[in-house]
Amino acid sequence: MTAPTPSYVADPDVALAAAGDRHAFERLYRLHVTRVFSLCARMVADRTRAEELTQDVFVRAWEKLHLFRGESAFGTWLHRMTVNVVLNARKSEGRSRSRFEDDDEGNGVDALPARPLAPGDRMDLEAAIAKLPPGARRVFTLHDVEGYKHEEIAEMLGVTSGATKAQLHRARLLLREALNR
């Protein structure tokens, strides 16, 4: 017997999975695993670690699904959980508060020029992002790829917004260097 579907949960698979239906959760997994893995991979730049973190995200989602209130889309809730799992893993590994090496506040730095990527450029960009220092890569991913504001990133990482601006500035400079070679 399954629990009644709360009216605020739009996706029936979410309601069924929250009630313990493993098949519904498997469907949710298949629908969202690529996006979760991609976010993990961008944040840690290590495929094996990203696979482990993706698994951790879905284990945590299964454990916490009963807490999902439906105030946002399930994908949004899962995305936020993914960011939290990655950041918490970094903290437990003792690397989340690595010292920022760039003292520049990053004010007035333009974003990378917006232009369509040629077929080989996408792989070059992904490789360049993977080679960024961890702090700069996390901030770049959260700000420029995922769209978080500096204040949100600062809160997530436990640093000042000035530090996130400096890391973003550093990441963009390093990416420009790498891509202009």
Q: How would you describe this protein?
A:
The structure is a single chain. The chain contains eight helices and no strands. The chain has two domains: 12-92, RNA polymerase sigma factor, region 2, helix turn helix motif (Rna Polymerase Sigma Factor, Chain: A), CATH 1.10.1740; 119-179, Winged helix-like DNA-binding domain superfamily/Winged helix DNA-binding domain (Arc Repressor Mutant, subunit A, Orthogonal Bundle), CATH 1.10.10. By secondary structure, it is mainly α. Helices cover 65% and strands 0% of the residues. The model is unreliable at 4-8 and 96-115 (pLDDT under 50). The chain starts with 11 loop residues before the first helix and ends with a helix. The longest helix has 23 residues, at 22-44.
What is the secondary structure topology, with strand pairs?
Elements: H1 12-18, H2 22-44, H3 47-64, H4 74-92, H5 119-130, H6 134-145, H7 150-157, H8 161-179
Helix pairs in contact: 1-2, 2-3, 2-4, 2-6, 3-4, 5-8, 6-8, 7-8
Task: Name its key features.
8 helices; Rna Polymerase Sigma Factor, Chain: A; single chain; 181 residues; mainly alpha; Arc Repressor Mutant, subunit A
Distance separating the two termini: 61 Å
Mean pLDDT, nearest integer? 81
Beta fraction: under 5%
Instruction: Give the count of structural domains.
Output: 2
Question: What is the overall shape?
Answer: elongated
The CATH C-level class name of the largest domain: Mainly Alpha
Radius of gyration: 18 Å
- Structural class by helix and strand composition: mainly alpha
DSSP E strands, number = 0
CATH superfamily of the largest domain: RNA polymerase sigma factor, region 2, helix turn helix motif
What is the H/E string? HHHHHHHH
Helix count from the secondary structure assignment: 8
